[in-house]
Design brief:
Layout lengths: L15 H51 L1
């Protein structure tokens, strides 16, 4: 086996299946956090679009009433 980088040398003492299982859990948690962030970003974009559309409607109604 090739020489491991210094930050991975301690992982060589554990069984390979255990390291893979831990990395799988870490990847699943990371993916879950990414989905949460994307979901809240979608909610934010939806709110901005609705507020922008509502403000545009009000502006157009007031602009037409003044002319």
């Amino acid at each position: 086996m090739d020489q491991l980088p210094p930050f991975l040398e301690s992982l060589g003492e554990y069984p390979r299946w255990f390291v893979v299982a831990c990395l799988t859990v870490v990847a699943a948690v990371g993916l879950w956090l990414l989905v949460k962030v994307l979901k809240w970003t979608l909610y934010l974009v939806l709110a901005v679009v609705l507020l922008g559309g509502g403000a545009t409607v009000v502006w157009l109604l007031l602009h037409k009433a003044g002319s």
